[in-house]
């Protein structure tokens, strides 16, 4: 299974789920696996931070990042990175961010993916 979440929750993630970073840059002191193919570009992120237009951000992220990838290849590479374990794609933002776009994209291609549900 592929989950998503954000770095502030990383320490609460069960050790049976392998965290994999998909953000631009890693938080200091965090040592996790990395999958840079899903990270947004600096240009896309900077434009979003200026105009806060979620629809435009999603359009650009899909066009520049996701359209260059095949969802089954992404899934297979994530499973290879995690040695077949469940994974949790990690980024910085609690609210709107590219991990939600990735979730939607994977789901649209029949690949189970959801935000990890915390019990607290």
Could you please describe the fold and organization of this structure?
It is a single chain. With 120 residues, the chain is α/β, with parallel strands linked by helices. The chain has helices spanning 42-51, 54-64, 71-81, 98-108, and strands at 2-6, 17-21, 33-34, 86-91, 113-115. The protein has a five-stranded parallel beta sheet, covered by helices on one side. The model has no long low-confidence stretch (mean pLDDT 92).
Give the secondary structure arrangement, pairings included.
Elements: E1 2-6, E2 17-21, E3 33-34, H1 42-51, H2 54-64, H3 71-81, E4 86-91, H4 98-108, E5 113-115
Parallel strand pairs: 1-4, 1-5, 2-3, 2-4
Helix pairs in contact: 1-2
Uncertain segments: none
Total helix count?
4
* Physical arrangement of strands within the biggest beta sheet: 3-2-4-1-5
**Rg over C-alpha atoms, rounded to the nearest angstrom:** 14 Å
> Could you give a short account of the major beta sheet?
5 strands, parallel
Q: Report how far apart the termini are.
A: 21 Å
Share of helix, binned: 25-40%
> How many beta strands in the DSSP annotation?
5
Structural class: alpha/beta
Give the overall form: globular
**Overall residue-averaged pLDDT value:** 92
N-to-C SSE series? Answer: EEEHHHEHE
Strand fraction equals 15-25%
In short:
By secondary structure, the chain is an alpha/beta fold.
Offer a few descriptive terms.
120 residues; alpha/beta; five-stranded parallel beta sheet; 4 helices; globular
